[in-house]
Specification:
The chain is mainly alpha-helical. It folds into 2 domains: 3-83, no CATH class; 101-247, Orthogonal Bundle (Cytochrome Bc1 Complex, Chain D, domain 2). The chain contains 9 helices and 4 strands. It has helices spanning 3-6, 8-36, 43-65, 68-84, 101-107, 129-146, 169-178, 205-216, 228-233; strands at 180-181, 184-186, 189-191, 243-244. A two-stranded parallel sheet has the order 1-4. Strands 2-3 form a two-stranded antiparallel ribbon. 20% of the residues are buried. Bound molecules: heme C (HEC). Heme C binds at residues 141-142, 144-146, 155-159, 162, 164-165, 172, 175-176, 180-182, 184, 186, 191-193, 196-198, 200, 211, 215. Heme C (HEC) is lined by residues 141-142, 144-146, 155-159, 162, 164-165, 172, 175-176, 180-182, 184, 186, 191-193, 196-198, 200, 211, 215.
Amino acid sequence: MDPNRDNQIIRFTTFWWGIGSFLIFALLLAVIIVVTRKPVTTLEDAAAVPRYDIKAKVDAAQATALPQAAIDAAIPAVAAKLAISKPAAVEKPDQVVPGSPTAEKLASTPPVDTSAVDVAPAVDGPINPALMEIGKVQFMVCAACHGQNGEGGPIAPPLAGSEWVVGPVSNLIRIQLRGLQGPITVKGTEYKFPVGMAPMAYQTDEQIAGVLTYVRNSFGNKAPAVKPEQVAALRSEVGKPQLTVEELTKP
Ligand code: HEC
């Protein structure tokens, strides 16, 4: 039998020595952590501190402002409103949705009076080069179908030498604003293309006057310029169905 083991005093002091040295090491560790802890040094970290602070405040504010129960209660009402709502009819003069009530109303209006637009200018003055430049740019769209030099092709008739191009101005403006559905006879040849020509009313009065002046004075054509006011005078044509040759003035 080991006399030390049975000694009450030795057992007591050994126990407390153990606890004591454990506490000493714990204290030492705490001191090391406190002493070596780095303060916030980088700018990013410094900036993050107020960000976290703001986020916490926003989260708290949102949580009190819109409780989940309120959101849940609002959803059916909002969904029901969305289900019955529909976009308002487009009433912009240069945008009429085909098949809309506005388009149907326009289709049944009497034919437009073109006599004021078709009066020949008193003086056939020189063509404004700035208007020709505007027209040249706009003609890139037309060229896709009518060809770079207005020579026509597999999907559109020629503009070069066309009696329609140098004929009444109202025809050209109305073709551009409403599009055209063949058949149409150009230079003695009857053309009928599957899709016809789509309206291009999105261009401004000046751009339309420019492109029409350009086709009337390019590819060997020669005719007086088209004025933006002439285009403006026929804007009421926008939204009506594609034109047919019967609705044009004979060149
Ligand atoms: C998508 C192809 C296409 C584009 C783009 C196009 N057209 Fe046409 N155009 C046609 C077709 C097709 C016809 C003949 C209609 C038919 O046969 O159905 C026509 C006919 C014409 C006519 C009367 C016939 C003639 O040859 O003289 C003129 C004038 C005309 N277009 C001018 C223009 C102008 C100006 C532009 C550009 C602003 C333009 N077109 C853009 C396809 C097009």
